[in-house]
Amino acid sequence: MSKATQIMPATRATARAQNTNKTKQEESSLSILQYRHDSPINKVCWNHDSSKLAVGGHDRCVTIYNTRSLSIQKPVLHIFKHDFVVLDLAWSKDSTLLAVCGGGGKGKHVVNEDKTNTFVVVYDMTKYAIYQQFECAAWITTISFSHNSKFFAAAGFDKTLTIYSVAERRIIKEYSFQSTIKTLGWSKDDKYISCGGADCCVTIIKTNKLV
Description:
Elements: E1 16-17, E2 33-34, E3 41-46, E4 52-57, E5 61-66, E6 76-81, E7 85-91, E8 97-103, E9 118-124, E10 129-135, E11 140-145, E12 151-156, E13 160-165, E14 170-176, E15 181-186, E16 192-197, E17 202-206
Antiparallel strand pairs: 1-2, 3-4, 4-5, 5-6, 7-8, 8-9, 9-10, 11-12, 12-13, 13-14, 15-16, 16-17
């Protein structure tokens, strides 16, 4: 069995490069890079051509890295700031949309001050602008696009699996459960969606009438 490589944490805002002298000639051969954030990371998510990496966490931000130009300095393309902790991220298949969910504190993106916090936000990544936002009754802990990118699903402490239409920008179906949903996923053909959580059960739902 090979010996595990020990990774030490980065200690400053720029990257820690290992097994290199950090010269310009050697930057292209860096095998390990670290970029320091101010709080724990909850999710890292590559887009589908691996050109961008989205990072979200307790700093209530989503940082977009340009992974085509990795170097000692942080290759940051954009930072989305929220008033809630970011718990999960999902890219659409063509990487034009990025869905963000989370919870904690009053949501920054609130449609109506008299209603519940908004913990689901979808960004148009061609403009780095909000595409749509949705109100939620509780923390949303998991989010995922269908493989055809026509729909995305989200769930969490509201004990509800919610399916949204991307084109229509609205909720098209909700499924209620008895306990918190912690994870979900679509089948490759988008004919099924599965979820599981605190009730120790896996639920599989046919989506053929939706897709």
